[in-house]
From TrEMBL:
Record-given protein name: UTRA domain-containing protein
CDD domains documented for this protein: WHTH_GntR
PROSITE patterns: HTH_GNTR (PS50949)
A single GO molecular function term of this UniProt record: DNA binding
Claim: Amino-acid biosynthesis is one of the keywords in the record: no
SUPFAM superfamilies named in the record: Chorismate lyase-like, Winged helix' DNA-binding domain
Source domain of life: Bacteria
Length: 238
């Protein structure tokens, strides 16, 4: 396996452990030697994965102590993140969703997010690109619980994006959103038609219907083509 792929695998699996709560805020990340042995790779490869998580704000390094899961920063106000398709159509922009991968699979136990979402059941895994005004704006990696939303297995995503379909058909009662920045990876850069390492904006969201998990999505926006604006008034609490 190429070094870049091993590094991204380490990053992805550590990220899923953090976001699922398997590694809680303040928890120590396995030391480099442990990760080298687990993945059969060099110190440089492990360091690259850890550094990308540090850049994303998920991990903090402490001199002579090691690497630890960052403690969350409390934000008094949560911004509403618009659905890409709905927002583009409302602005009169050309929009399309290009489906890159579609797979039904059993949740992987080593992946904390999949294990929590799948609950030993089947998942629909989707990858795609949101095209706005004929330019790639957002990459999307999404998993959906087929136990909670069995009807989605037959939906044609060449006509509607997964997020828009879910908003139109599946009422959710709880959501959790995480906003962060990252550098475009070797996988994301060509999909967004931007240089490797270019600044990107990341939106990660989980939704539930009562206690049933519905979906987890990770969207990576071209940082130079996206802005997020919030409008607040004095005394506003939401």
């Amino acid at each position: 396996m190429p070094i870049a792929s091993i590094s991204e695998t380490i990053r992805s699996e550590l990220e899923s452990r953090i976001l699922s709560g398997a590694l809680s805020p303040g928890a120590r990340i396995p030391v480099e030697r442990e990760l080298m042995e687990e993945y059969g790779c060099s110190r440089m490869t492990v360091n690259k994965a850890i550094s990308s998580l540090v850049a994303a704000g998920l991990i903090e390094r402490r001199k002579k102590a090691g690497s630890f899961v960052s403690r969350p920063i409390m934000h008094p106000t949560m911004l509403a993140i618009p659905d890409v398709q709905t927002d583009a159509v409302a602005k009169g922009q050309y929009y399309s969703f290009r489906l890159l991968r579609r797979e039904v699979r059993t949740a992987r136990k080593r992946n904390g997010i999949e294990a929590a979402l799948g609950q030993n059941g089947q998942l629909l895994a989707l990858s795609g690109i949101h095209i706005v005004d004929h330019q790639p704006l957002v990459t999307e990696e999404r998993i959906i619980s087929l136990a909670s939303v069995p009807e989605i297995e037959d939906v044609d995503f060449t006509k509607v994006s997964p997020g828009t379909w879910l908003l139109q058909h599946i009422p959710w009662t709880q959501s959790e959103t995480r906003l962060s920045s990252t550098a475009a990876s070797m996988t994301e850069a060509p999909l967004l038609d931007i240089p490797f390492g270019a600044a990107c904006f990341v939106v990660e969201r989980k939704t539930w219907r009562e206690t049933l998990p519905i979906t987890y999505v990770r969207q990576v926006y071209n940082g130079s083509a996206f802005s997020l604006t919030g409008h607040f008034g004095v005394g506003s609490s939401r």
